Amino acid sequence: MKRLLLAGLGALALTACQATDQSDAGPAAAGSTDAQQQPARIAGVPVALLVPPARPTQRGERLGDDDLRQLLIGNTIKQVDDQYWAYFAAGGQLRGLLVNLTEIGYYTLNAGTLCKVWPTWATGMQLCYQVISLGDQRYRFTGLGVDSFDVVVSRGNPQAL
Question: Which residues on adjacent β-strands are paired with residue 45?
């Protein structure tokens, strides 16, 4: 039953992502002759809401604990190719939104590794990641024994999680 539910959610998320990707195209795709203009959104998030890196990082650089704290705590990640959001509250609480389902979990940062636990979504299993800078305010959560995914980081809690 859970697998069927997750498969349905995945299909729904894919459909939503396709619509989001179309809106990311920006003014150039809408018929503007100025192809140099930057898109107003990245992964569906307004560029003005994105959190700039705390310090310059090289593409492919792994973020350490200080970088992760400054980037994530009090802010929200949005998965680039899915309708997944997660707000990193101070004190280790994590609040998530996947399509229209919400969850409250927790996270830890230790030795440049971010671990998170979702009681229902991941049946309480700890999922751990190293975070790599991709440049252009995008980051890859490189899974340690789990799937990796790309995110952008929004200021604050725009989804009111």
Answer: 42
Q: Is 89 a domain residue? A: yes
Q: What are phi and psi of 10, to 5 degrees?
A: -60, -45
- pTM for the model stands at 0.75
Range of the domain at 115: 43-154
Average pLDDT, the chain: 82
Q: What is the CATH number of the domain that holds 60?
A: 2.40.128
User: Looking at the predicted structure, is the pLDDT value of residue 34 above 90?
Assistant: no
Residue 101: Cβ within 10 Å count: 12
Burial of 16 (0-12, 13-18, 19+ CB in 10 A): middle
Task: With a cut of 50, say whether residue 48 has pLDDT above it.
Answer: yes
